[in-house]
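Continuing from the previous page of notes. For each protein in this section, the sequence appears first, followed by its structure tokens. Read the first protein now.
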Amino acid sequence: MKCHRVSRDWRTFLSSEPSLYRNINLLPIWKPLSSIALKRLISLSSAGIGTREIAMHNPSDTFANYSVPGFPESKTQTLSLLRQLFKNLEVLDIFCGGDRRMDASSDVLRHGFDILPFANLRHITIEFAISPTTFAKLCDAAPQLEFLDCCLSSNDVILDPAKTYPRLKAFLLTAIAPDLAHWAEIFGRWFPNLEEVIIKRHIGHSRGGESRRDCELRLNNLRILRLGGSINLRLTSTEMRIIQLSGLRVLHLPIQPHLEELHLVTVPSLPDHVLQQFYESAKSLQHLSINSPQFSPKDVDQFLRQGLNLRSIRLSYTQGINDSTLGLLHSLHRLESLEIDYCTEVTGNGIINLVKSLSIKKGGKLRSISVRGNENIRRQTIDWARDQGVIISI
């Protein structure tokens, strides 16, 4: 609830009804909470309220003054009352207000473990880098955790060999130089029930130092995978829904009967025959991106002939894409967008015939076509397509 310049009666009501406070947003605050603000939080705690969601910047700054002079005089009592307020906390979001910060020299959870009870947390997002030690402590402190989005400046994570964390379903990691093979071992041993894995390299850092070892993800429940790196990847799950990979050298996986999205972007070292592993998934695919110069129309024709559920197709930089390739799309009546940037063999006639078959006016769903880098498409064609409800980008 956000109010600005409200009446005195409204302010009285909001202050007197603590049951309204289920979500606390401290993001507008860039300096430590004042003693007045802390007293207000403590009064909510005294009323028996337990907020379930909180969003803030660095907790070490936000709660720098958590010992409030005179209310009460004891820091221990203050902490106890604040912890009571957060006793039912399930969602914790810590944002840095810009690009993720990878300097772990200042641990953002220095006061967090003292004030914020982690026992019931299910969803954590931390945009500041945390140390491997803090990562391990976090896993132990939040046994109910199901979603974790964090930054690590080091891969040297050591977890208790006697423990596992079966409740974690989604793990999103941002790192400077993620050792994918190392993390694959961690996932398989400590997080066996992961359904979503996303590993991103922090923007602004080079690709040097990454692992080139074989990487096997033994996660039989895995459904969503997004990662990039010069690795040999092997998957065991047959339940994949989304696969997004870049920089890959080798890929092995079982048949994926339920795959909905396949994105292979900038994978110049990947053999062209690797796409054959996905042909059985053509009928279930809704989104397809094949953007790498070694692939040709013969490698993607199978998807275009059988992909009747495809809603978006991206084939930019694929050599040999031409009007005949577009002819295979005429039966894809669910297609909404097509991207064929720098496919210079496509002509205006091929675009016109496609629009005639799939535009909204013809009973289709096609809304956009991107043909950047192709000088064969004339302005008249673009204007005519717009009249048919299809936007062409050049």
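Done with the first. The second protein uses the same format. Note its length before scrolling.
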Amino acid sequence: MSPLSKKIDQQFLVGEDYVEIWVEAFLKERKAQNLAKGTIRNYREKLKSFLDYLSSQEIKYISQITSNDIRDFLLLLEERDHNARGVHGFFRPIKTFLRWYWEEVEPAEKNHILRVRAPRVPVEAIEGISKEDFELLLSVCPRNTFYGERDKAILLTLLESDFYGLYHHKSMIEIYRWRF
């Protein structure tokens, strides 16, 4: 048995809620779920930053974490020039970890992550493509083949459904409607 496993087992017996030990237990459980290595690495990196922050605030136990601690950490990330997506990227692993902990242990106190809303991530509009680019896409579809006809059908469906903002060229629909 590894030193970490012994530590985790002792923690379960004693009933302590050391954040660091529970983060390692969480990562171990995620590995056992056979999640992708990149996902595990992301959890580890983001939770390590959160642990460092908690340590700087002299917070050792999960029961000491408050909603304001989580919010303050997210605000600190903003101050350190993380954009909205970056801050949200830290929020998700913290939320996943704390929800897992509450499901695993079922402590009496409330889960503070439930009081913290996810940071808003602005939705950026995607610019549509030009008529020329659309015609180029259609022109590379092989004629009289299953895949070529399929690809044309997909492109025309995207055009009709306004997927990717193609619809701003309304005349394109009329031009291509007769072809199919």
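What the second structure shows: The mean pLDDT is 83. The chain is about 65% helix and 0% strand. We return to this in next week's lecture.
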